[in-house]
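Changelog-adjacent note: as of this version, every example in the card shows the full chain rather than a window. The one below runs 114 residues end to end.
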Amino acid sequence: MPLIYKIAPQSLWAEAEAAGAFTGAPVDLADGYIHFSTASQTRETAAKHFAGQSDLVLAIIDADRLGPALKWEPSRGGDLFPHLYRPLRIDEVLSAHPLPLTADGAHDFGALLS
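Full-length structure tokens:
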């Protein structure tokens, strides 16, 4: 099962849980798809796009469950990133976890990335 990851503000994630689907953060809505990262890309995504931000959630998703609307497309440095061209149903999410900051300001993923 290939796992992919979504970092989102806790407030947006709570709205998605209440609605039953995550339609995207502002950057996702602007680009027309939901941005995800692989385990090896997630730390850099956090550092680049969420530096210093607390009150975040890390959602873990089985990429195989998303069907043909999930596309692997080149992005940062030519790496292939997973992009979902539809809302993410909350029942497709394996788990969601708080993503706190460490004392030095980096995000603490603990053992969440596999």
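Structural remarks: The first strand starts at residue 3 and ends at 9.
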